Amino acid sequence: MYGRYGSDTLNLALLIAGLVIAFIAQLVRFWPLTLISYALYIYAIFRMMSRNVQARQKEYYSFLKVWTPVQKWFRIRKTAFRERKQYKYFKCPGCHQQLRAPRGRGKILVTCQRCHKQFNQKT
Ligand SMILES: [Zn+2]
Predict the structure, then answer these.
(1) Tens digits of per-residue pLDDT, 36-50?
(2) What is the sign of the dihedral through the CA atoms of 87, 121, 115 and 71?
(3) How far, in Å, from the CA of 82 to the mean position of ligand 1?
(4) Are 19 and 66 found together in one domain?
(5) Is 78 found in the same domain as 39?
(6) How far is the CA of 52 from the centre of ligand 1 (A)?
(7) How many whole angstroms from 90 Cα to the centroid of ligand 1?
(8) Domain membership of residue 110 as a residue range
(9) Domain identity same for 43 and 74
């Protein structure tokens, strides 16, 4: 593997997408979907074996531009679910920043840290 690009999160995503598409192809019995899953596997192997590290990194950064906000969205939902008994999560009406306040304080006046907009929020 010396001089080769190796693996990254994009390769993992390609393999998972390939597996999901192959599974769907089996469910709906539509063979062209199987070809798409094979194409994804071949592309993942090609990326792993590629010596053009710069091009593979460029692809990876393009992938991260899409993947990072998705990952952030899921992380916030997970944290909000874990802390659902202690904190109320809501968005600022001005800038849509995700905010939280301790539960059980009734109606409170919230000042957004980002845009300094003040609004009432029931907790
Ligand atoms: Zn705000």
Answers:
(1) 999 999 999 999 999
(2) positive
(3) 24
(4) yes
(5) yes
(6) 43
(7) 11
(8) 85-123
(9) yes
